[in-house]
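Lab notes, practical 5.
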Amino acid sequence: MFSKALHTTLAACIISATLGSIAHAKETVTFWGRSNQTSLELLVAAYNKSQDKVNIKLNMIPGESMLTKLSSSIAADSAPDLVALDVSFLPQLHGSEQLVDLTDKIGDRDYIKQLSGSLKTIGVSKGRLYGVPFSAESSFLFYNKKIFRQAGLDPERPPETLQELREYSEKINKIGDGYYGFAIPGTCSGCLAFTLLPYMWANGGDVFTDEGKQSVINSESNKRTLLFFHKMYTDGLMSPVSRGDNSLIDSFASGKIGMVGSGAFVFKVFKDSYPHIEYGVGYYPGEKKGDWASFAGGDALAVPVKSKHQQEAIDFIDWALSKETQIELLAKNGFVPTRMDASDNPYNQKDPRFLLATKALANGRSVYLPAYNEAISAPSSPFLTMLQKSIFEGDVDNALNTADQKFKQIIKMSQE
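Output from the prediction step:
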């Protein structure tokens, strides 16, 4: 009798515990992010800990294969519920109807109003919203303060014109023993768009007209800019690593290169891996003092059309773009917030470099082009070929003309 009662009680407890665990089981939401976005693991871990409704399962995808893999998964009805990708890829994806229209779902949220102009625009197609930047990147010129002092330069004053960029480089080269004033990531197309295109903008040039409808690459202003950097290279003011390095972070950290272009993500890289570097940041200058530019980029959150948990994905977007998350999770850990009202925070105020990054973001520009990957960031893109032939070989006229023809072909194909 006792044994039967015990068995009955145990069975009831097991059933109750099982039902309880089922009732409290978290729904799994699949999330794809590009592998070099270091804030994602931080965000996902914090979100999973903050609530008990869903578990975000993060899968890091190499950035160069994200578009192909995502499109294939949508076609095979196996798409992730949420995706984070380079903002530059948004026009291509929403143009091919692969992303959920978020206009009526989050279009009136306060964080949408707080995005900088270029970042807000790039997620919009024909007045409809398809993606929201959550992690911002503005690009600017990094310089080594120790090298500046060795060269007799003011360590608190970066170059404000292209001519000063050259003059600074000449003084740095004179230090001797393998020192170079300047370098570019000459094998990385996406990196060059981020770090060399701003010089063209600052000089009055451009690559495409608004929304990528026309190529304007073959211009006199772009020719002047490219000739300037070709002369920097042939005169030995640009480090030879420029022809083979695709990031320059390690090369700059070696302490022999005075100035390189990069983005705000490097703040955290230097803090974690190269804390000894004493560096400053400045804008990308043009020919005239006061003319400068920056590439406004970063990563955006979007919902693929075959997502099986759209509302849960939107809940995460709301949380990630909240002012508290932007400040207490991103800014606190060395990332630049995308919300303009989150930029003036206690963490950024401790370092003036963050304030410059925020100003660069607010005034930065992006490239809106449905075929951005093919035209700009692909390993064999016309943009990369143009820069390499212009800067390293000096064939500027032919390089610009060829790029213009290629761009027009790509634009035409993307519109068909």
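Observations recorded by the TA: The radius of gyration is 24 Å. The longest helix spans residues 2-23.
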